[in-house]
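[Automated response] Your request has been received and processed.

Submitted sequence:
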Amino acid sequence: MHQYMDLIGIGLGPSNLSLAALCTHSTKLKSVFFEKKETFSWHPGMLLPDAKMQTSFVKDLVTCVDPTNPYSFLNYVVKQGHIYPFLASGQTTLSRLEFCRYMQWVAHQLPNTQFGAHIEDIEYKKPYFIVRHQGKCYKAKHLVVGTGITPYTPACAMPFLSKHCFHTNELALSQPNLRNKRVAIIGGGQSGADAFLSVYNRHFGKPKHIHWLSRRANIESLDEGCFTDEYYMPNYIEPFYHLNNAVKQREISHQKLTSDGITSDCLAQLYSQLYQDKYVLNTPKWWTITPHQTLVDMSINPQGYRLQLQHGLNQTISNIHADVVILCTGFNHLIPPCFEGLLGEFITDEQERITLNENYDAIWKKPSPNRVYFVNAGLHSHGIADPQLSLISWRSAKIINHIVGKPVFELLHTPSVIDWQLCSDTNGHKNQINSPNNSLDELTSFN
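Generated structure:
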């Protein structure tokens, strides 16, 4: 027997969890979301004591498009019985641990989520997708695929992965004993700062020495100004989609630190502690922070791991030794294996990335009435906000509106403070911004 669904979701990270919550409360869509893990988890190895979110708690799974939804963060703290202490704390951003607990609370009370559900196969037989899971068979009009992530490890470090050389996504889970160890932390983003703070604050024992390395020009702060937030609003994302691809990549590169820098609060806490240690307590040197250093080679010898570094300015080569190496080197996106058999049915770009329509549905090679939506796969097409949490509720609402064919959610477009002039001329007519006859300088004005 087949079970018929309007929408089946593959994977339950924050993005699909947002979709599941909005579907349950605000639509009559028959939906089910499958997750192979037994319980909800969100980078459990990175839930360090000092790690905080980069976005406001209002940008939760539902609030920005459906503020009366019972799966909001504010309802979570009410149900947990600590709304008043939360308000008294004055927090605008949460710890990663609390936000994860909120998402766990949502995930395990939704009626349309199934955990411990391994998808064996997905087949397309027009006009349905057939999803097989543990002897059960579902038919769905549409799919939404959550692209997961997998840790990125530099090639030179791959042979040495072990309990003494590991990606930061394992740090909180492995609870390494760093007492009297030389620790090298590779990577200058937020995860590198979180790892440094945790090690510096002796959460894993007092190390002998910490060496924090980054190939960036400095320990760079998150660009979190109010004007920067305009990049993370629908009025910017929607016209951005229609820009020439070369322009998109240029602008995404320019905007990197709006998502990949270190929060000001974290840097202020860190700098204050380092100042106290170095200039007030006059502690003998036990930590080093060196930017402009790229890890180019790694080996092991009687002195421990040998890390060969190249300086970004003068290209000089230097070496350091460490007993433990923590790789804060980011992640790559991953298409779920159960979907790989269908990838050939969709258009991809020169880098083999799925090509997405404006509503986040993949473009078929042959027209089809059924849609496959991809979440967290549109950085190259929809801009810098796509892999972030800031607009997940808006994206979920946009996908639901597209499926239903009418505005279940009123995604009103309030005029921006900034006039981006991306897609319309002074008469309100759309410019032909993708025309090959337009030069890059003519395509857009961001000033």
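Summary generated for your ticket: DSSP finds 13 helices and 19 strands in the chain. Confidence is low (pLDDT under 50) at residues 424-447.
If you did not submit this request, please reply to this message.
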